[in-house]
Task: inverse folding
């Protein structure tokens, strides 16, 4: 095994932003753990695409809400390649519920969403921390959301969970420095299977058009746009930690336009 080989775990990488991220890393010669919760078929397809792109890849099932699964994901990378250089906490969940519908969310909804969106990234970071420190160039990127910055998105519970993830990013950046950098990206409206399924095809198109009409760049984003920012935070940004990069076409400025 080459000492120059770099290894990344990307949670929730069988589709969407996670898929775009592992493919981008594979094209740069990285070895990647393609993590999935339910669809082994999708994950194996993505892993095969990563290998075809020039990287190494394995598909590993795991629910980040479960600490034992997080530790198993870390162990899979170490058993396969002996190191972990980057972790992308991308796995997430939500409940689509209008923000005005306060009765539409239960305590159980909050607990389920926080288990994946907040506790999951903490557990994954804890499971990989020692290997990331040993890397000498360790990097963690948390995939947040512009919803956390402006109180929008699929539900109040989702926006609140991403706000908690942002705060945890700052805490972990302090806790893991100087060996490991910890940053976040906050996507806006991104064309992913998750978004289309959540809104429905027709409603998604209407929302995408409305979003593009509001933002300064007059566009929605593709998963690859977010992956570009993630890869930069991993491979470059050597003096950047505790940062949160918004990939939202300017949505956070839309009201001031």
Result:
């Amino acid at each position: 095994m080459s000492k120059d080989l770099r290894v990344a775990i990307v949670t929730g990488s069988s589709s969407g932003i996670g898929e775009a991220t592992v493919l981008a890393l594979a094209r740069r010669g990285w070895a990647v753990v393609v993590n999935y919760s339910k669809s082994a078929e999708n994950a194996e397809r993505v892993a095969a695409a990563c290998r075809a792109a020039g990287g190494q890849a394995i598909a590993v099932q795991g629910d980040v809400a479960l600490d034992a699964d997080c530790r198993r994901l870390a162990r899979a990378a170490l058993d396969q390649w002996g190191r972990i250089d980057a972790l992308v906490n991308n796995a997430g969940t939500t409940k689509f519920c209008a923000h005005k519908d306060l009765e539409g969310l239960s305590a159980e909804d909050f607990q389920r969403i926080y288990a994946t969106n907040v506790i999951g990234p903490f557990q994954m970071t804890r499971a990989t921390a020692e290997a990331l420190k040993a890397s000498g160039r360790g990097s963690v990127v948390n995939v947040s959301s512009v919803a956390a910055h402006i109180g929008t998105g699929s539900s109040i519970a989702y926006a609140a969970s991403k706000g908690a993830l942002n705060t945890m990013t700052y805490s972990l950046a302090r806790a893991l420095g100087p060996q490991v950098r910890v940053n976040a990206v906050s996507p806006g409206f991104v064309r992913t299977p998750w978004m289309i399924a959540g809104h429905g095809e027709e409603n998604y198109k209407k929302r995408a058009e409305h979003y593009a009409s509001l933002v300064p760049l007059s566009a929605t984003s593709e998963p690859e746009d977010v992956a570009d920012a993630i890869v930069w935070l991993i491979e470059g940004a050597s003096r950047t930690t505790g940062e949160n990069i918004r990939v939202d076409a300017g949505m956070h400025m839309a009201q001031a336009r």
Observations:
- The CA atoms of residues 102 and 156 lie 9 Å apart.
